[in-house]
Amino acid sequence: MHSLTGKLCAAVFATLACASAQAQPAYPSQPVHMITAFAAGSASDIVARMIAEKLQGELGQPVIVENKAGASGQVASDFVARAQPDGYTIMLATNTTHSSNPYLFKQLRYDPVADFTPLVQVCNFPFVLVVGSKVPARNVAELLAYGKAHRGAVNYAYGNSTGQIAAASFDKITGMEAAAIPYKSTPQAMTDVIGGRTTFMFVDLASAAGHIQSGALRALAVSTERRSTRAPDLPPVSEALGKPGFDLAAWVGIFGPARMPEAVSARLADTLYRIVSSAEIQQKLRQMGADPTPARAAAFGSFVARQKSVWGEKVRQAGIEPQ
């Protein structure tokens, strides 16, 4: 009797489970939210909206880009790490959020590896050293001379960790003793460099291109060890200083929260890889100053794990103490 009852219960539970599974709508059945860690107008915001437009067409659902700027990307990262892992919240992230923050802050509310599902690697961004038009420096040597003549009054702005680490490294190598001025976002930092309230900054070429073309900002060098195809006339910082080893560029990729259903993460990963590998998106990335680096989820996950160590060493070399 007990055996029969048990079999009946098992059958009922199996039927209910099957009905429940059948009742679950196929993914996606509602809008997808793509979170960015930086403000509107930043390079990551531009890339997010470019990809979201294509992803929306592929998924047949709205893809809404949300800017959650603050705390060097911690606000957005923490939000996504704690979101439901159902595929309806994803994040366009950078080396700031997933490589350098663990070394810039004593405590993070998220783990950049354990709390996320890698989906696709998108691109790299070379950074450029810029000054405002009010600073009388047209090359790195003239900026150093200006800094020496105005010692104690020179400072640098930054709106993300790449800008912070690059500027701190430059300051340490050159002995400028410039003060660091943090901003909530890159556009805010650029505004103060343009206005003459800060002396210089390292900024991704995509964000700064319009201001450089207008003359509001003057680009002096690139942060990569080799000349960039995006700005071939600019010397690398290493070349300008005659000191090898200065090589910094930002990476961009897309994650979901950890513990996503495999079918959902695979659908997103395959779709996103197809989008970022397309000739159209790669052309648009190059036009905005990025180097496309499409990589599938597994390769991207290995890359992120390696980059965490690489950026830790860069933070140490820059002499930045965690906050």
Give a written overview of the molecule:
This protein is an alpha/beta fold and 323 residues long. The protein folds into 2 domains: 32-124 and 250-318, Bordetella uptake gene, domain 1 (D-Maltodextrin-Binding Protein, domain 2); 126-241, 3-Layer(aba) Sandwich (D-Maltodextrin-Binding Protein, domain 2). Helix content is 47%, strand content 20%. Strands 1, 2, 3, 4, 5, 6, 7, 8, 9 and 10 form a 10-stranded mixed beta sheet that branches. Strand 1, helix 2 and strand 2 form a beta-alpha-beta unit. Helix 2 packs across helix 10 (262-276), helix 4 (95-104) crosses helix 12 and helix 6 runs parallel beside helix 12 (297-318). The chain is globular, with a radius of gyration of 23 Å. The relative contact order is 0.18. Residues 8-22 have low confidence and may be disordered.
Give keywords.
D-Maltodextrin-Binding Protein, domain 2; about 20% strand; about 325 residues; alpha/beta; 12 helices
Task: Offer a concise description of the structure.
By secondary structure, the chain is α/β, with parallel strands linked by helices.
Number of strands: 10
The appropriate CATH architecture of the largest domain is: 3-Layer(aba) Sandwich
Shape: globular
Catalogue the unreliable spans: 8-22
Topology readout:
Elements: H1 2-23, E1 32-36, H2 43-59, E2 63-67, H3 74-81, E3 89-94, H4 95-104, E4 116-132, H5 140-149, E5 155-158, H6 161-174, E6 179-182, H7 186-194, E7 200-204, H8 205-214, E8 217-222, H9 237-241, E9 249-257, H10 262-276, H11 279-287, E10 291-295, H12 297-318
Helix pairs in contact: 2-10, 4-12, 6-12
